[in-house]
Amino acid sequence: METDLRAASMVVDAQSAVSWGAIAAGAVGAAALALLLIAFGAGLGLSAVSPWSDSGVSASTFKTGTGIYLVCVAVMSSAVGGYLAARLRTKWVGVHSHEVFFRDTAHGFIAWAFATLLSASALSSVTGYLANGTAAGVGGAASQATRSVNPADIYVDKLFRPDAATPAPAASAPASSPAAGNPNPPAPSGTNPNQSRAEVLRLWTASFQGNQDLSAADKTYVAQVVAARTGMSQADAEKRVNDVIVEAKTAADTARKGAAKLSFWLTAAMLFGAFAASLAAVEGGALRDGTWNDRVLIPRPI
C-alpha cells in the first residue's frame, strides 16, 4: 500500500503543474473579447459625444464614463479568460484540494498576464485605430488638420496677433529711439518678420521643454518683438506675453492631470482584471473537477 502511494506521488510530481495550452486559449479569448468590447465602447463614445455645446455628454462625464467602462471591460474579458484557462486544463489526479485551488488561481492570473501582454503588443494598433476614430468623429476635419501643427506655433501666433485697437507700424517708417519717447521699440531681430517669429518660436520651444516658462530676459525680449510687430505699447506687449504663458501652462497642467487620471483608471482596470481572472479560474477549476449528476454539474468542493 505504501509503495502504491509513493508511486502515485512520483507520477503526480512528474506532471507539469502548468497547462500552457489552456492558458493560451484563455488569454486569446480574453484579448478577443476585450477588443470586441473596446469596439463597442468606441461606438458608444461616438454616439454620446457631440461637437455641439447643447447636446451630448460633458467632457468630465465622458472621461469618468470611459474609465468605468475600461474597468468593466477588464473584469468581463479577464473573467472569461481565467475561466477558460482553468476549465480547459488537464485534470490533476492525486493532488490535495488546497494545491488545486492555488494552481487554478495561478492559471487565471497567468492567463490574465498573457492576455495583457498580447493586447499591449498585437492589439495596440487596432485599439489605437478605434480611439483615433472616436477622436476624429468628435473633432472632424479640424482635428485632422491640427495633428501636424506644433502646439508652440499656436501660442506664437497668439503673441503676434495684431491688436485691433492699435494699427501695426508701417514697414517703411523710420525707427525712433526709445529716448525720443517712442513707446514701441524696434524689433531686436531686424525688419524681417519671419526671422523674428522663427527666433521667438525657438525660444518658446526650448524654454517650455525645460522649465515650462520663459526667463525674465527672454520675456523682455519677446515683449519687445511683439510690440514692434503689432504696434502695441511695451506694457501691453508684456501683458500679452504673460497671458499667453499662463494659457500654455494651464493647457500643459490640464494635459498632465488628464494623463494621470487615465493612468489611475488603467491601473484600476488591470488590478480588477487580475482579481476577476483568478476568481473565475477557481470557479472554472471547481466545475472542471466536478461530477455530473444526470444533467446537473456538481462542482468540486473548494
Q: How much is the average pLDDT?
A: 77
User: What is the alpha-carbon Rg in Å?
Assistant: 32 Å
Please summarize the sheet with the most strands: 2 strands, antiparallel
According to DSSP, the number of beta strands is 2
Strand order of the largest sheet: 1-2
Helix content: over 70%
Provide the number of structural domains: 2
List keywords for this structure.
single chain; 302 residues; mainly alpha; 10 helices
Short description:
This protein has ten helices and two strands; from the N terminus they run ααααααααααββ. With 302 residues, it is mainly α. The protein has two domains: 171 residues, no CATH class; 101 residues, no CATH class.
Please provide a written account of the structure:
The chain is an all-alpha fold and 302 residues long. The protein folds into 2 domains: 171 residues, no CATH class; 101 residues, no CATH class. 71% of the residues lie in helices and 2% in strands. It has a two-stranded antiparallel sheet. About 10% of the residues have low confidence.
